[in-house]
Amino acid sequence: MRSILLRNYGGETAVQVAESPKPVAGPGQVLVRVRAAGINPLDWKIREGAVRDAFPLQLPAVLGIELAGVVEASGPDATRFQAGDRVMGPLGGLGAYADVVAVDEARLARTPERLGDVEAAALPVASLAAWQSLNFLGPIQPGARVLVHGAAGAVGGFAVQFARQAGAFVVGTAAGEDLAYVRGLGADQVVDYRSQRFEDLVADIDLVLAYVGGDVIDRSWQVLKPAGAMVGTSSPEILARTPPGRQGHWFVMQPDAALLERLAADVARGTLKAKVSEVVGFDDIPAAIERNRAGAHSGKAVADFTR
Ligand SMILES: NC(=O)c1ccc[n+]([C@@H]2O[C@H](COP(=O)([O-])OP(=O)(O)OC[C@H]3O[C@@H](n4cnc5c(N)ncnc54)[C@H](OP(=O)(O)O)[C@@H]3O)[C@@H](O)[C@H]2O)c1
Fold first, then answer.
1. CA of residue 204 to ligand 1 center, whole Å
2. List of residues 6+ apart from 141 with CB closer than 8 A
3. Could you tell which of 193, 233, 276, 297 is best to mutate to test the pocket of ligand 1, judged by most ligand atoms within 8 Å of the CB?
4. Which CATH superfamily is domain 137-250 in?
């Protein structure tokens, strides 16, 4: 079967289309015939070796962390799904960029009938990460002031909507045409990160969602209330960038099939917007990973394996 393999840490060419043996479903696992897989920033961070301490890997490794597809077979003690069921989910590990993947069935949600596979593959990691990071310290309260950095990104787009639905006052940072997109998702205030300094325009924030790292984290402490908190997704660096006495948290998404099923149902009925910015074929996955690294897109790129 086809796979997208990382042989050694490096740049775009370190990731290549390869042939791999078809896996066998272990206890509690199902074999999924993958129809689509979401492209994530974690793909190029892994490729470059940037997160090798947080996510130690044995190379070569098949990349890809989320998928949508069809159940082909069930392993021992796997009873939730039948062959032919459409499923979607985060793997909680690597290996989604392959024609067939063995997945713990507990991590998978049923794909709603009205949702296509490409749309479904865009949801697991971004929607779960957005929901869980927003509510990391407890349910977000009406009237809370939330600053979302990277609001036009895959995670940020969902977080803006979830925060707004919870009754929060939402500020989003983005750039160019994405500013209108973020406003359309429900942000009360948008800040152009290329031409404006958010710290000049925003104050008294209860929660900063740092979906962007680096100095954005350092500059955000001054807009937080003294008791406010920052939750960072981009790397564990947020811990080292948290001054004494302040609340900074490194967040890692946890697979949650029940929550994913609920969020996918919201997308299917149109009450939650999900933006697929680019659809590529299997052979184009290495280039799409590199484009994700280079930035300048809103929403999510997805690989359509049926192309
Ligand atoms: N820890 C976890 O469990 C977890 C889970 C999911 C994601 N993540 C991480 O969370 C981050 C966001 O993921 P994603 O999938 O949403 O990525 P994404 O779709 O690539 O979105 C990132 C967004 O950030 C914007 N951006 C770049 N620099 C910015 C700045 N200085 N200020 C404001 N916005 C800026 C980009 O805009 P441009 O297009 O203008 O560059 C882009 O829209 C990534 O670092 C990812 O690895 C972590």
1. 23
2. 166, 167, 168
3. 233
4. NAD(P)-binding Rossmann-like Domain (3.40.50.720)
Find the helix packing angle between 257-269 and 124-134, rounded to 10°: 110
With beta carbons less than 8 A apart as the criterion, state whether 126 and 273 touch: no
Mean pLDDT, the chain, whole residue set? 97
Say which residue the tokens 């979401």 belong to: 38
pTM as predicted: 0.98
Q: For residue 39, what are the contacts with CB-CB under 8 A and spacing of at least 6?
A: 280, 285, 288, 289, 292, 300, 301, 302, 303
Percentage of the chain exceeding pLDDT 70: 100
CATH for 2-125+256-304, among 3.40.50.720, 1.10.8.60, 3.60.15.10, 3.90.180.10?
3.90.180.10
DSSP 10: -
User: Over 90: is that where the pLDDT of 109 sits?
Assistant: yes
Above 90 in pLDDT, residue 30? yes
Angle at 172 between CA 166 and CA 173, to 5 degrees: 160
Q: Partners of 247 in the beta sheet?
A: 229
Q: Can you tell me the mean pLDDT for 45-67?
A: 93
Can you tell me which atom of ligand 1 is nearest the CA of 41?
47
Distance in angstroms (rounded) separating the CA atoms of residues 265 and 252: 23
Tens digits of residue pLDDT in 168-200: 999 999 999 999 999 999 999 999 999 999 999
